[in-house]
């Protein structure tokens, strides 16, 4: 069993950031390995992804709580994979996004790298630049 957590600072206001994140059609734009995602009603999401070198197509779920700017998601897989994300205000026009992942399958370096890449792609999508996770600095 393993838990992972990363935070990214965005130069995007929290309401805009949360609205973008809560729209499942944006998931492939920043989520590493995800080829497509579409809502199939309620909290159900049909996803196509490449996970650990294997193509996965199936149903997942995503719960959105706009009041607390929180998302929770998961998939019925033997790995017990699920996660949550929180968007918080940082001043008037910026935000932070904290993502936590849980899996029964511990692959620290691979999961850590994927999570860092996901947040870098999110920053690029919303702010137009990326963060070098190794150095913690922004690049254009």
Number of strands: 9
DSSP helical segment count: 3
CATH class assignment: Alpha Beta
Predict the CATH topology.
Alpha-D-Glucose-1,6-Bisphosphate, Chain A, domain 4
Give an overview in words.
Pfam families: Polyketide_cyc2. This is SRPBCC family protein. This protein is α+β, with helices and mostly antiparallel strands and 140 residues long. It contains three helices and nine strands; from the N terminus they run βααββββββαββ. It has helices at residues 14-22, 27-30, 108-127, and strands spanning 2-10, 34-41, 44-51, 54-65, 70-75, 82-90, 94-103, 130-132, 137-139. The chain has a seven-stranded antiparallel sheet. Strands 8-9 form a two-stranded antiparallel ribbon. Strand 5 and strand 6 form a beta hairpin. The chain is globular and about 40 Å long. The chain starts with a strand and ends with a strand.
